[in-house]
Amino acid sequence: MPEPLTPEVPRRPLRDRPVRVAIAGTGAIAREAHLPAYRALGAGVEVVAAFDIDEAACRAFCADRGVPHAYSDLGTMLEEQRPDLVSICTPPAVHREQTAAALRAGAWVWCEKPPCRSLEEYAAMEAAEGGEGGPYAAIVFQHRFGSGADHVRGLIARGALGRPLVAHCQTTWYRGADYYRVPWRGNWAAEGGGPTMGHGIHQMDLLLDLLGPWSQVRAMTGRLVHDVQTEDVSTALVRFESGAMATVVNSVVSPHEMSRIRIDCERATVELTHLYRHSNGDWRITPAPGVPPAEVAAWRDMGEDVPSSHLAQLRPLVADLRAGRRPRASGADGRTSLELAAALYKSAFTDTTVKAGEIGPGDPFHAAMNGGGREL
């Protein structure tokens, strides 16, 4: 079992040792996604500690999974273990505080979605980052990673499919009453929003990653089933800078669960249908009449199948950490889906069209997704 480091003991350069990792929050996402992803990287990564305010749960997590050090105080863990990378697997209300603490301690951060509860909180997280070379805070947006997403992004970016014209982004999931018995779910102060923030943000992020910047949003939200503060359904019409137009639907009241993106381009339709992760077989490309078969075959050849997953995002993140490069899904790139969510909420609450860039400091929707206390 490694001894805790102290500020007086210098660490060897990263090129000479494994990346030291700590996990903040020991719930399901840490157990089922983060820790397995780190372990899959092998000897290049060493999970040295975990933190949770529930000391018994943290000790059990560490004992069951061979993590050397358990902590119930984040600051003590950061000071004693001096990790290179911290996974933030806690509820959204503490993401800003814990991310900033890790960054100030010199650690890079990989923070679960939603990144935080507001654009104001995200700005505070960005302000805590280091200068050139980091430390940086990346957000867990694993759906934009994997071979299928990489391939389709490339096709669209180089114009192989023609201009994107019409798109549909769908996250129609089902959550029963038991889901909302967790105290921090379904209220603005703790979660920051409903399925727009906690569920649909993954597909929204992938849509933005494929189509680029949006220009305006018109939206509606509703609370149709659940006795909570936040919405359980949201819909939006989105216009992109490219001229493409999209519909976005987010729901937790849909028994037939589905995650779906469809993009109609001039020369082909691209469709992705899945639930919680996707692989090459979940993508379908339908050519317009007249496209040469050889070209269609090249479009459909996505190469080695690398499914979307935490591991698919973690591999390049660790490589960026070692190289001192800003990773994808951090900084301005990590903020894009949060900006779209804020615009969706503002449009729904104010019954107006919201333009990109209009929600800044001083706007009530910059500080809170419900505009500082508005009710549905």
From TrEMBL:
Domain Gfo/Idh/MocA-like oxidoreductase N-terminal: from-to ranges: 19-128
Domain of life according to the entry: Bacteria
One Pfam family here: GFO_IDH_MocA_C3
Listed GO MF terms: nucleotide binding
Every GFO/IDH/MocA-like oxidoreductase domain range: 151-270
Signal peptide range in chain numbering: none
The name this protein goes by in its record: Predicted dehydrogenase
Lineage: Bacteria, Bacillati, Actinomycetota, Actinomycetes, Kitasatosporales
